[in-house]
Amino acid sequence: MNHLRENGVVHRDIKPGNIIRQVGDDGRSVYKLTDFGAARELEDNEKFMSIYGTEEYLHPDMYERAVLRKPHQKSYGVNVDLWSIGVTFYHAATGTLPFMPFGGPRRNKPTMYKITTEKPTGAIAGMQRADGGAIDWSYKLPHSCRLSQGLRVLLVPVLAGVLEADQDKCWGFDQFFAATTNILQRLPVHLFSLQQASEHCIYVHHYSAVSVFLEEVSSHTGLPQQPLLLLHLGHELLLEGNMKVVNLPHTSPQRPLLLLSFNPDSSCSLPYREPECPITPAKFDVVADYNFTKVIVGVVHQYLRMAKMLHLHRDLLLQGYYCYIMKLRGECREAMNSISKISLRLQSCFNVEQRIHNLGSSVDSTDSSQKLHQVHEHLPIYSSGIQEFQDRLDHLLIEQAKLSETLDHDKRCGLIHAAVVKPSGSI
C-alpha cells in the first residue's frame, strides 16, 4: 500500500480475496496485493467519480451510488482505500465483517448503508440482531478474535481511524502508515501467567528499557510490578535496571516467559467461551443441511483449538510450578548450609568465650553470650522447619509426576481431531 501511494495509485478493490500469501523456504509469510483491474493513477489531492469494488468493502459514499443506485455528485479520493483496508483488517482478525444487518449485507442493503453512515465515532463494528431492531455498536474486537490482547490494543485505534465514513474525519495515509509501522516495529514477547493460567503477548519496542516492559506486563495482567518472578527454561530471569528489551531471550507461544506473582490474584477464569451451535434443521433439506454441517465443522474446529490450547497451558503450568518448586528446594538447601555455617561459627565463639573465662578475664559479655546461646538453641528449630518444608516440596514433586503421567494418557484431543477430520472429508 505504501508503494502504491508513493507511485500515485489507488487500488479501489481491497479485500481478503485479493490478497495472496506466499510462504518462503524459511517458513515466513509474505502477503501480496493482487487484481489491479480497478486501479488507477490518483494523487493525494485528486478525486474520481467512477465506481468499482466489492460492495461489503466499499466506502459508504461509493456504496450509496453503486449498490443503492442513488445518484449523487460526490467525488472520491484515495482515502476510500483506507475504508476497504479497515474492513479487511477486521474480517481477517475476526472471521466476520464489521457491519452486519439482520439477514446479511446482501439481503438488507439499506440497513447496511445505515449502519456504516450512522456509526458513532470510535466504534469499529455494528450488528443488527433482529429485523428492524437497534444496532449494537462495538468499540473493541469480539471475544472470538484470536489476536492477543496486546495486539488488539494496538489495532483498535487503527480500525477506528480508518473506518470513518466522513472523508474529512478519516485518517490519512500518512497517519495510517505511521501507526501500522509503529506496530510492525515492536517486538512480541510471549508471556504465561501461572496464577492466572493465561497467555499474553506484549508488543514493545526493542530499544525500550525492561522497566517499560514490566509496566506493559502489569497493564496486561493486572498484576502489580513488584514483586514478580520471571522464569525461562527452568531458571529465574534476572532483569537489571539498564537492560533493554532486545536483550530478553527469544520467546514463542510454546516457550514463553513464565510469570509468577507473590500477590494473591482472583482473575483465574478460563479465557474461553462455548462456541454457539446452530439449531438442527427440523426437516430434510439439502441446502439447509449443507450449511448446518459447515457451521458444525467450524464449531468442532473451535473446540479442537481450545483443547490444544488447554493442553499447552497445562504443560506450561506443570513446567512452571516444577521450576518454582526446584527453585524453592535450592533456597532450602542454601538456608540449611547457612544454618550449618552459623552453628559452626557460634560453636567457635563459645570455645573462645570459654578460653577467655578460663584466663580469668573480667570482660563483661554476659548479655551478648546469652543472645548467642539463644540463637544457637533456635537453630535446630529453624532447621526442622526448613526440612519439613523441603519434605512437602518433595511430596509435591511426586504428586506432580503422577499427575503428568495421568495426563499423558489423555486422548480427548485426538477424539476431537477425529471428529473434525471425518465430517470435513465428507464435505
Which sheet architecture does the biggest sheet show? 5 strands, mixed
Alpha-carbon distance between the two ends: 37 Å
The low-pLDDT segments are none
The number of helical elements comes to: 10
Helix share bin: 40-55%
Number of separate domains? 3
Shape: elongated
* Elements, N to C (H/E): HEEEEHHEHEEHHEEHEEEHHH
Q: How many strands in all?
A: 12
Highest-level CATH class of the largest domain: Mainly Alpha
Q: According to CATH, what is the topology of the largest domain?
A: Transferase(Phosphotransferase), domain 1
CATH architecture level-2 label of the largest domain: Orthogonal Bundle
Commentary on this structure:
Pfam families: Pkinase, TBK1_CCD1, TBK1_ULD. GO terms for molecular function: ATP binding; protein serine/threonine kinase activity. With 427 residues, the protein is of the alpha+beta class. The chain folds into three domains: 2-183, Transferase(Phosphotransferase), domain 1 (Orthogonal Bundle), CATH 1.10.510; 186-261, Roll (Ubiquitin-like (UB roll)), CATH 3.10.20.90; 286-426. The chain is built from ten helices and twelve strands. It has helices at 2-6, 60-66, 80-94, 109-117, 149-162, 173-184, 210-221, 286-358, 366-408, 412-426; strands at 9-10, 19-23, 29-33, 40-41, 99-100, 125-128, 135-138, 186-193, 198-205, 228-232, 235-236, 257-261. The strands form four sheets. The protein has a five-stranded mixed beta sheet. It has a three-stranded mixed beta sheet with strand order 5-6-7, covered by helices on one side. A two-stranded antiparallel ribbon has the order 1-4. Helix 3 packs antiparallel against helix 5 and helix 5 packs antiparallel against helix 6.
